[in-house]
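Re-run with default settings, no changes from the original entry. Doing this only to confirm the output is reproducible before filing.
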Amino acid sequence: QVQLVESGGGLVQPGGSLRLSCAASGTFSRISAMAWYRQAPGKQRDLVAAITSGGSTNYADSVKGRFTISRDNPKNTVYLQMNSLKPEDTAVYYCNADVRRYWYSVEMNYWGKGTLVTVSS
């Protein structure tokens, strides 16, 4: 059993910055890809940024140049540094990870409960 817990959400003014964290807990052998998704009211849940176990990253066009995803493997934690925030960034941000219980196990996908980010003046 694996749990993903997000933190760092809150209210911030346009142009401000915020850093989200997602910590994985439980017993597992390996976490491969980790990602951040977001879902605004009435909208589809979309990929914001992803990072592989090797450190390769991918970003949605809407956040390129403003957001940075990173991970701390010894802490089993992924971060999302958000700069130059805009009102349209307002959404619930969800952590996602592919995890193997043992080195020989199949990958299982897990979701966090989400953390709310509100960008407003």
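The two ends are 40 Å apart (CA to CA). The chain has a mean pLDDT of 95.
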